[in-house]
Amino acid sequence: MRLTHELAVATMDVEPIRTPRLELLSMPPPFIEALLEDRYEEAAQLLGIALPHGPPDRQVKRFLVRRLEQIRRDPAVQRWLARVIVLRTRDRPMIGNVGFHGEPGVNAKNREDALEIGYGILPEYRGRGYATEAVRALIEWARGEGFHHFIASVAPDNSPSLAIVQKLGFVRTGERWDEEDGIEDVFELGD
User: Fold this and answer.
1) Which of 56, 101, 150, 184 has its CA 20 to 30 A from that of 161?
2) pTM of the model
3) Predicted confidence (pLDDT) per residue in 85-97, tens digit
4) Cβ(71)–Cβ(81) under 8 Å?
5) Per-residue pLDDT for 1 more than 50?
6) Is there a contact between 82 and 102 (Cβ–Cβ < 8 Å)?
7) CA-CA distance, 136 to 134, in Å (whole number)?
8) How many domains does the chain divide into?
């Protein structure tokens, strides 16, 4: 059964964000649907990228379903949500994802003026500064949209992610319990 329906008509055209090494491309509903339905070649063609080999794991599929549900409720939220991180090389491989958890106000602190960021880099591309570059670019884009307060929730044992938020100037302001990930430290940047 295909998930595609009238939602494809409501898909927003979200401009990519570019850095010297990366391109951050919004994940439109048809792309997410193709991934969830194991139509990887179609998904890759939709964005003009090379996808990693193998199907998304259970956690990634939950993430994709959650983002698709958010867009179905309000197509305008797509510009805030997940973007694939693509290397700006000839083969254009997807190396990870970055995005906000939702529109402004959807965050661990329930601040109406804040955006909560999330990111992930595929293991074979880690340790090269791609996550820092992608997060920095997304934050700069959001500042251009008039938002200046950012939140990141990171597991206390996730040393690479902790290093990224600290490098970007985030400050630990508390902790929270996440139903899927357990205890997380909450970091804030801005104001």
Assistant:
1) 56
2) 0.91
3) 999 999 999 999 9
4) yes
5) no
6) no
7) 5
8) 1
Q: Where are the alpha helices (DSSP H) in the chain?
A: 7-10, 29-36, 40-47, 58-73, 130-144, 159-167
Q: pLDDT-derived band of residue 5, with 50, 70 and 90 as boundaries?
A: very low
> In this structure, are residues 83 and 151 in contact, taking their beta carbons and an 8 Å threshold?
no
- Report how far residue 115's alpha carbon sits from residue 110's, in angstroms, rounded to the nearest whole number: 9
User: Which residue type is seen at 56?
Assistant: P
pLDDT on residue 4? 42
What's the CA gap between 167 and 190, in Å, rounded?
Answer: 14
Amino acid, res. 68: L
Lookup: tokens for 95: 């190396």
Percentage, residues of the chain above pLDDT 90: 86
pLDDT band at 13 (very low <50, low <70, confident <90, very high): confident
> Who's near 166: CB < 8 A, 6+ residues apart?
none
Please, are residues 16 and 23 in contact by the beta-carbon 8 Å criterion? yes
Q: Domain containing 153 — which CATH number?
A: 3.40.630.30
Range of the structural domain that residue 95 is part of? 18-190
In a domain, 5, yes or no: no
Q: Does the residue 34 lie in any domain?
A: yes
Are 177 and 183 in contact, with CB atoms under 8 Å apart?
Answer: yes
